Amino acid sequence: MKAYYRTVIFIAMMLLCQIIVTAQQTEHTMVLYTHYLLYVPVEKPDSGFYPLILFLHGMGERGDDLNLVKKNGPPSFLDDTTGFPFVVVSPQCPPNERWDPYRLLSLLDQVETMVPIDKDRVYITGLSMGGYGTWMLAMAAPGRFAAIAPVCGGGDSTQLEKIKNIPVWVFHGAKDDVVPLSESQRLVNGLKKLGANVKFTVYSEYRHDAWIPAYSNPELYQWFLEHKRATH
């Protein structure tokens, strides 16, 4: 009988290990973007639907090698964790291109046919070029997102009215010599004038690498989960 229970425990542990492996990021393809990484948590929410983060990388990670996408942001740590509660979609921008909001929306449409997503809990974040992409995508489809977190990016301040109902948490390095702090500051100031829900974190000792403390801050992910898509 003891041997039987040992066998049962061993099989259960092997099955658990297999489940954990499936939580790693997997590679996928679609017509409009050559590659993207997809992370699906081990545990399914009680509702049956996952919150989703769309992560947009920076200019240096463009290409056709998904290992580049794993250099920074959530993709850099997702293969080493099983407790992250979000589905994470991390596309790779083709060489010499910039983020196209309509292609990204098509990508989200595809993922939502593959995985049960809580459409009231879809979030965007990105760094540098991806920070610009975050602002742009939110302005292109403001009714689709629950909250956004652009890191060391910038955008079109004339379009801020479109996203005044979306909670925003902006991150930037005070010593950034690639994308000036003023790029984020003017957007934050514009949102404040509109009465928007906006937070602004400036890392005084960081340059164009504010994503390091931003994405290692667990409060960011808790903040995402506190927000649902606004009703219009």
Care to describe what's here?
By secondary structure, this protein is an alpha/beta fold. The chain has a single domain, classed as Rossmann fold, CATH 3.40.50.1820. 33% of the residues lie in helices and 20% in strands. It contains 7 helices and 8 strands; from the N terminus they run αβββαβαβαββαβαα. It has helices at 2-22, 66-69, 101-114, 129-140, 181-193, 211-215, 218-225, and strands spanning 26-28, 36-39, 50-56, 87-91, 117-127, 147-151, 168-173, 198-203. Strands 1-2-4-3-5-6-7-8 form an 8-stranded mixed β-sheet, with helices on both faces. Helix 3 (101-114) packs across helix 4 (129-140). The longest helix has 21 residues, at 2-22. It is globular and about 40 Å long. The relative contact order is 0.13.
Features:
232 residues, alpha/beta, Rossmann fold, 8-stranded mixed sheet, 7 helices, 8 strands, 33% helix, disordered N terminus
Number of domains: 1
- Spatially, the strands of the biggest sheet line up as 1-2-4-3-5-6-7-8
CATH class: Alpha Beta
Question: Could you name the CATH homologous superfamily?
Answer: Alpha/Beta hydrolase fold, catalytic domain
CATH architectural arrangement: 3-Layer(aba) Sandwich
Compute the gyration radius: what is it? 19 Å
Strand content: 15-25%
Estimated structural class: alpha/beta
Coarse morphology: globular
- CATH topology name, in short, is Rossmann fold
Helix content: 25-40%
Largest β-sheet summary: 8 strands, mixed
Spatial separation of the terminal alpha carbons: 62 Å
Stretches where pLDDT falls below 50 for ≥5 residues? 1-22
How confident is the prediction overall: mean pLDDT?
A: 87
Order of helices and strands: HEEEHEHEHEEHEHH
**What is the number of strand segments?**
8
Count of alpha/pi helices: 7
